[in-house]
Amino acid sequence: MLSSHYSGFGRWILSCIAGVALHAQAAPQYTATLLTPPEGSYTTYVYAISNAGVVGYVEPFSSIGSQPAYWSLQGEGRVLPTLAPSAVGRSIHYAYNINNAGQIVGRSSTVLGDVHGYLLTPGGQIQDLGALPMTRGGTHSPGSNAQDVNGVGSVVGESYTDDGLRAFLWTSNGGMRNLGVLEGGSFSTALAINDAGSVVGVSEVAGGRRAFLWTEAGGMQDLGDLAGGANSSTAKAINGTGQVIGTSQTAEGSRAFLWTQAEGMVDLGLLSGHVESFATGLNESGATVGYSRTANWYTSPFLWTREEGMIDLNSLLLTADPLVSAGLTLTYASGINDAGQILVSGQLNGRSVTAVLTPVPEPSTWVLSLLGGGLLLMAVRRVRRGETH
């Protein structure tokens, strides 16, 4: 072994190499970009981030109701098209999710007064997704809500039926399909879909509600809950490798979870001094975001990875960032894209703000590898020259 030939210099070399490896794996630091409301006087609400941008909705300081909105990753906002013009009477128009191609889904009031899920293309073409059939009248008029869209344009959400709310899967060639409920349940809603067509969400069961995974081959699968959960869990997102995140009750309160086919449901823990945690977003690498709360209901956003565990995003903000110097404090994280950019909410000088956090560029992997290799080569040459001390 190299360390058996010498002590001081060899140990220094090995510690440097170890330091390079640790630096390469450490959680990144972030800078923040505030999201600017579209032109006009609006209250802003955000829901989701993808590689193509951010979506949510805005409420004008008037009586015309909400408007769906889009923001670029650089923070510029604009109002989106709707199924029907906004009118006095609090029309409902929301954008809930966006895929990496820039397709957007949400719900919007129609000219008939119903509220339907929609699919909006990057070019501004909006499609009414309709609703599942209702034949018997009831307390709800026909209506639907689109919650997520995958990379091939398949949409999931929920729609009213004669038997209650049902999760649906919509495709361009098959229309809207009822995904059913778990045994003993009377409602279900689908919250996310990956590019393979696997769907996750929540369904009522006898005595509670459970997170589910739906696939074409296996139908609707109950994902269970964490120990002490008492039939209370919800699946929030699924990535391309089949990892699922969400929130489950435990004997000690709500906990963010990660579910995989191999491991089942795993508790992601809490931030220090907190009592509950909630997972809200997941990217293709398995990085998870959400928020954790104290007993006094103060919340902090977190980033969770297998390498680092759960970290308060406030601790990862670059101290030199002008917004941090001005007093930016983060309270909530709602999504993360494949580039590691995170959608957050917080407080700045007494006002509520929303922002995109972007990882600070670090030395690339090949640079770190060259550095580590160079240090090792120095050690070998000194050993060959007999420089052991």
From TrEMBL:
Residues 1-26 form the signal peptide. The keyword Isomerase does not apply. The keyword Zinc-finger does not apply. It comes from the Bacteria. Pfam families: PEP-CTERM. InterPro entries: HAF_rpt, Ice-binding_C. Keywords: Signal. Residues 359-385 form the Ice-binding protein C-terminal domain. NCBIfam families: HAF_rpt (TIGR02913), PEP_CTERM (TIGR02595). This is DUF3466 family protein. It comes from Aquabacterium soli.
